[in-house]
Amino acid sequence: MKKALLLIILMAGIYACGGKKEVSDINPDVPFPADSDLVYYQAQYDSGLQQFWGDIKAISSAFLNNSQYVGRGISFKDLRIVSEGLFTGYVEVNMGDTCLVLKLIRKNQKLGKRCIWQVVDAREVPCRE
């Protein structure tokens, strides 16, 4: 009887523990700006009031200032444009021990270079030398 009770308690403990936790790849900070705000910021860019929305490095910096990475002491000189195409770009952010790779896109491809950038992915990777 005691062995059965001990076994039940042990199994309940294992079940409650849950085992290995799953790590989510979902980043709550992306997309930046949010899809619901794209029309507003596109209008601000088109009117000439906020021209930085067209600069890939400026948008990357704004993303860092409004995300979970704000307290890491990252400056503008830590950003490096890896590639910048017409509709897709990559920016690498040196954070000391790791690097953050940002993927940016221009969603409204009909506007071409007049479309604002949007951060759609942010991944921490080991830095390359």
Indicate the overall shape.
elongated
Task: Going across the biggest sheet, name each strand in turn.
Answer: 1-2-3-4
Distance between termini? 63 Å
Strand percentage: 15-25%
Please indicate the count of domains. 1
Main β-sheet: number of strands, strand sense, barrel status?
4 strands, antiparallel
User: Over all CA atoms, what is the radius of gyration?
Assistant: 22 Å
Description:
The chain has 129 residues and is of the alpha+beta class. It has one domain. 28% of the residues lie in helices and 23% in strands. It is built from 3 helices and 4 strands. The protein has helices at 2-17, 38-47, 56-65; strands at 79-84, 88-94, 98-105, 118-126. The protein has a 4-stranded antiparallel β-sheet. The longest helix is centred in the N-terminal third of the chain and has 16 residues, at 2-17.
Briefly summarize what is shown:
With 129 residues, the chain is of the alpha+beta class. 28% of the residues lie in helices and 23% in strands.
Q: Could you outline the blueprint of secondary structure elements for this entry?
A:
Blueprint: H1 2-17, H2 38-47, H3 56-65, E1 79-84, E2 88-94, E3 98-105, E4 118-126
Antiparallel strand pairs: 1-2, 2-3, 3-4
